[in-house]
Amino acid sequence: MEKSKVYFTDFRTRVGVSLTEKLQRLIKKAGITDIDMDGKFVAIKMHFGELGNLSYLRPNYAKAVADVVKECGGKPFLTDCNTLYPGSRKNALEHLDCANINGFNTITTGCQIIIGDGLRGTDDITVPVRNGEYCKEAYIGRAVMDADIFISLTHFKGHESTGFGGAIKNIGMGCGSRAGKMQQHNSGKPIVHDDLCRGCRRCAKECGSDAITYENGKAVINQDICKGCGRCIGACVFDAIENQNWNANEILGRKMAEYSQAVCDGRPTFHISLVRDISPNCDCHGENDAPILPDVGIFASFDPVALDQACVDACLHATPMPNSQLSDNLADPHWHHHHDNFLDSNPNVRWKETLEHAEKIGLGTREYELIQMK
């Protein structure tokens, strides 16, 4: 397979030129206007941010992309699917309220917002997974699959289970209905090591399933209630919680790649990632810690695998930010240095397997040519 083209620009702008204009210029240079959008429905998949989180992408970026789609005659809409955990986006009504509070509406984005899997997260469609090894079928939000064209607009960041949250996670996990998210997360469930647990209760605050209680000052996870999302693992600063299935995060990443294949296969797609406000954890958190790395820039490509690989490479070469989770870990004299900014931020993660499997099943290639635009 020949190298895919990935287009890149940094966040520098000259006086009189806005960053959204620069974004539009980049995606046009990358070829988004070559897609025949005339009269067609165009899904723009993004994350509206959990309430309390401030690192999600601003709605201005969504409007910039939607405006380009409309210039091409397309009918854009923003979309995301409901969450598996009971936060502020667990059903369409609360999800839309959350989006609106965080600044996403028809005025700020220039298009409608449709929650992809309906009111209760059950409006999905079963989609075959080409070359799927773990998922032969994927449960994808119906509105996502009803679109003629699919565009992912991603906030590239760290993640407590998958290492990084890039295009593949935005597409695969983000487009899964609640049943689809459950299918991706059910590879393993965490357990608590009593000797390491301090009873700080931070894990219980992060649990979206109310599966964690305390006995004799130690956390106990109800395996029947637990959904296996892994948020408690990322929350524990004492390494007292781990997945009893040692390769659960590896399998999670591979399933996300297969779900992304289901979403993208057989129709035009385009992918954009903004590598900024690189928080250590997902935007699904109701808070965001300080960025672990400096802002990098904007990447765009027709290939989501090449796009993620280019973003990863840029982050691996970046210098850790002071006073961040990453720099604190590296400053610990007992820390085992992985020489990997994602692993050194969240040591329980597995991220390489996601890209390897995505390439294996034909979603894209990890080989890319980086084309820089000033």
From TrEMBL:
<dbReference type="InterPro" id="IPR007160">
    <property type="entry name" value="DUF362"/>
</dbReference>
<feature type="domain" description="4Fe-4S ferredoxin-type">
    <location>
        <begin position="188"/>
        <end position="217"/>
    </location>
</feature>
<dbReference type="InterPro" id="IPR017896">
    <property type="entry name" value="4Fe4S_Fe-S-bd"/>
</dbReference>
<dbReference type="GO" id="GO:0046872">
    <property type="term" value="F:metal ion binding"/>
</dbReference>
<dbReference type="GO" id="GO:0051539">
    <property type="term" value="F:4 iron, 4 sulfur cluster binding"/>
</dbReference>
<protein>
    <submittedName>
        <fullName>DUF362 domain-containing protein</fullName>
    </submittedName>
</protein>
<dbReference type="InterPro" id="IPR017900">
    <property type="entry name" value="4Fe4S_Fe_S_CS"/>
</dbReference>
<comment type="function">
    <text>Ferredoxins are iron-sulfur proteins that transfer electrons in a wide variety of metabolic reactions.</text>
</comment>
<feature type="domain" description="4Fe-4S ferredoxin-type">
    <location>
        <begin position="218"/>
        <end position="246"/>
    </location>
</feature>
<keyword id="KW-0408">Iron</keyword>
<keyword id="KW-0479">Metal-binding</keyword>
<keyword id="KW-0411">Iron-sulfur</keyword>
<keyword id="KW-0004">4Fe-4S</keyword>
<dbReference type="InterPro" id="IPR050157">
    <property type="entry name" value="PSI_iron-sulfur_center"/>
</dbReference>
<dbReference type="Pfam" id="PF04015">
    <property type="entry name" value="DUF362"/>
</dbReference>
